[in-house]
Specification:
The chain has one domain: FAD/NAD(P)-binding domain. The two termini are 42 Å apart. The protein is an alpha/beta fold.
């Protein structure tokens, strides 16, 4: 087969897994690819300047206009070029909030419970936003199945189910191993749990919907305008970019996995990690129908996470995970993801992949999302890989806070984002963490 893309000899040994029209770009971009026709001029003034034109930045801008404020959004690339059009498009409904948090005091337990309630509210917010504005983005509220990597993980899900059901409409339940075929066309897991309050969507089309709403509301969105400096004075913030400067009363940092040197205090509080995805070719109808009989979003309890779901039209599988720890070429990770995929679904052996891509997620030291203020700047950051609904929510809540809205209240606005004296924004330790996680996963699996 002729090489359909550039790659070295070692990587091309697996060329039989690639479709002849294989592309190194998100499959989502076949429906909507981030672009800009005309570069908007940088305004001289705005009430609020927002750094980052992803879900959080656009949601904040949209809400600010509803609250009577003017907003300008700056982005280094085209709006949506980052994770907002690259993710798996899965909506967890708060399952991941506090997943590894140690409840040492009653106050900590109350804080996590409040955060889970707000995470549930984030699900309501994104669902309402989509339905009220008729955003055509393949919204499927079909629940989520979480596969147990080993028996100890399955046993631990008992407490997780109880915690989720304590939240209104959590609707979670355990699925024993002998019943999991009703949820997933695989015997790979040791059972799992289902959360009916889960969904998946087309992330690029959802982003386009937000972008269209912002433009209709008159929000100024400045693409190809990386922020180069930030200076605060009694008059407000002077936000300098490569294409001009804006004076604003408030600044919002919404850069998440693409946080850079211009905001060093935030760069040392978020850890960018690459998440990798592949898309299969269109599958035979019977095979496609066998993978996720109820069209669930699917993830598992491995530390080296995998997550996957059917495309909105149900014709292909979109499979993602932490194939490598750190940031690397998706061509290198595609064969790894393919192996993960066929381990779970042997019926996909021989199928080919049409797309492979990556995007940065942002982890925090405490594995919790955060919003708040630091050195006079507002921020909405760190969704730890579950950002479609949460970043929308944090952006909206940040806008309500700035505007002094009567309905503002958010459990994620409180504890400052933690940092570590050995971390300055360079995630040098991530490969070592990956080795540790893989070892722990192997041990757990061997034990059952």
């Amino acid at each position: 087969m002729a090489q359909p893309f550039p790659g070295d000899t070692e990587l091309m040994k697996n060329s039989d897994i690639y479709h002849p029209e294989f592309q190194l770009k998100p499959w989502w971009w076949e429906a909507y690819q981030p672009k800009v026709e005309d570069l908007a001029d940088v305004p001289q003034t705005a009430d609020v300047a927002i750094i980052g034109a992803g879900y959080a930045g656009l949601a904040a801008a949209l809400e600010l206009t509803k609250q009577g404020k003017t907003a300008v959004v700056f982005d280094t690339e085209h709006p949506g070029f980052g994770a907002s059009t690259r993710s798996g498009g899965m909506i967890s409904g708060g399952r991941n909030v506090g997943k590894r948090y140690t409840r040492e005091t009653p106050e900590e337990a109350r804080q996590i419970e409040a955060m889970r309630h707000d995470a549930a509210d984030s699900f309501d917010l994104i669902e309402s936003l989509i339905k009220d504005n008729n955003i055509d983005c393949g919204w499927h509220k079909t629940g989520t199945f979480y596969g147990a990597w080993c028996r100890s993980h399955y046993n631990a899900m008992t407490d997780k189910v109880a915690a989720l059901n304590a939240i209104e409409e959590g609707d979670a339940r355990l699925i024993p191993q002998d019943q999991q075929r009703a949820e997933i066309g695989s015997d790979y897991y040791r059972g799992g749990m289902v959360i009916e309050r889960g969904a998946h969507l087309h992330p690029a089309l959802y982003f386009k919907g937000l972008l269209d709403l912002c433009r209709a509301a008159g929000v100024t969105i400045c693409a190809k305008a990386p922020v180069t400096d930030l200076n605060q004075s009694p008059a407000g913030w002077l936000v300098g970019t490569s294409r001009g400067a804006t004076m604003s009363e408030h600044v919002v940092v919404a850069t998440n996995g693409y946080t850079g040197k211009v905001t060093p205090d935030f760069a040392k509080r978020v850890i960018p990690i690459g998440s990798y995805l592949i898309a299969t070719e269109e599958l035979p109808g019977d095979i496609a129908a066998s993978l996720s009989p109820k069209n669930r979003a699917i993830a598992d309890s491995r530390r080296v996470l995998t997550y996957y779901r059917m495309s909105p039209d149900g014709k292909r599988l979109l499979f993602g995970g932490r194939a490598k720890f750190g940031i690397t070429d998706p061509l290198e990770t595609a064969p790894i993801l393919y192996q993960f995929m066929t381990d779970r679904f042997p019926q996909l052996r021989g199928s080919r992949i049409t797309h492979a891509w990556t995007g940065n997620v942002a982890f925090t030291m405490d594995e919790l999302p955060h919003m708040g203020e630091l050195k006079g700047m507002h921020y909405a950051l760190g969704c730890n890989g579950s950002g479609v609904a949460m970043m929308t929510y944090l952006g909206t809540q940040t806008a309500r806070k700035i505007a002094g809205a009567a309905n503002y209240q958010c459990a994620f606005d409180g504890p400052q984002m933690p940092t570590h004296p050995l971390y300055n924004g360079n995630p040098w330790f991530i490969p070592w963490v990956g080795r540790y996680f893989r070892t722990r996963d192997w041990i757990d699996r061997q034990l059952g």
